[in-house]
Amino acid sequence: MTFKPGLAPGMPRTCCVVNISPLLKELILEACQFPALNRRTQIQRHLIGLIVELLHSSELLPLQLPQPVDPRAQKVANLLLSNPANPLPTQEVCRQAGASKRTVERLFRQEIHMTFGRWKQQLRLIYSLRLLAQGLKITSVALEAGYSSPSAFISMFKNLLGTTPGHYFRTDSSDLT
C-alpha cells in the first residue's frame, strides 16, 4: 500500500515488511475496494486515519536485506549471498574480499546502518524462509542455513519473527474468516 508523502507522516519512505493485525488486514482489504481513497469522503477519511494509526503501531519485520555500496563490503555480501551457510570465519570471508573484519564492520554500519553480524543473521533468516516455503523440514533448513542445531535455528527464528517456523507457515482456517 502506498500513501502520498503528506498523508502518513513518520512512516518509512522505503519498502518494508510489517507484521499486521487481523483488523489492519481487513481494513487494507476494504481500502482496496476503492479505486483511490479520498480524504474528502468521511468514511474514507476515517479508514485512512485508522490504517495509518494501526501501521504506526505495527512491528517492522527483519525481512529486508540492504546491500552495501563499497566494493569490499559488496564482495563480502556476494560471498555470503552465494552461500548463506558459509562455514568460514568472518575474518576469512573479509580477507577474501580484500578487507579487514574491522573495515567490513565499519562499512556495514555506515552504509546500511546495521552490523555485519545482524546483516548475516537476516541473510540466513531470509534464506531459511525460502527453504521452509519449499517444504523442507526444519532440521534440514537449520543445517542448510548454517545453524549448528535445529534448536538454535528455532530460537533465532522466534526471536526475530515472534513465532516458531512451524507456526509461521501454518494456515489456520480461523484466520481466514
Describe this structure in words.
The structure is a single chain. This protein has 177 residues and is mainly alpha-helical. It has 2 domains: 17-61; 71-168, Orthogonal Bundle (Arc Repressor Mutant, subunit A). It is 55% helix and 3% strand. The chain is built from 9 helices and 2 strands, in the order E-H-H-E-H-H-H-H-H-H-H. It has helices at residues 22-31, 42-56, 71-82, 90-96, 101-112, 116-133, 138-144, 150-161, 165-168, and strands at residues 17-19, 59-61. A two-stranded antiparallel sheet has the order 1-2. Helix 1 packs antiparallel against helix 2 (42-56).
Distinctive features:
177 residues; mainly alpha; Arc Repressor Mutant, subunit A; 2 domains; two-stranded antiparallel sheet; 2 strands
What is the strand tally?
2
Text of the CATH class of the largest domain: Mainly Alpha
Question: How much helix, percentage-wise, in residues?
Answer: 40-55%
Structural class: mainly alpha
CATH architecture of the largest domain: Orthogonal Bundle
The order of strands across the largest sheet is 1-2
Q: Quote the distance from N terminus to C terminus.
A: 22 Å
- Number of spatially distinct domains: 2
CATH topology of the largest domain: Arc Repressor Mutant, subunit A
List the helices and strands and how they pair.
Elements: E1 17-19, H1 22-31, H2 42-56, E2 59-61, H3 71-82, H4 90-96, H5 101-112, H6 116-133, H7 138-144, H8 150-161, H9 165-168
Helix pairs in contact: 1-2, 7-8
Q: What's a quick, concise take on this entry?
A:
This protein is mostly helical. It has helices at residues 22-31, 42-56, 71-82, 90-96, 101-112, 116-133, 138-144, 150-161, 165-168; strands at residues 17-19, 59-61.
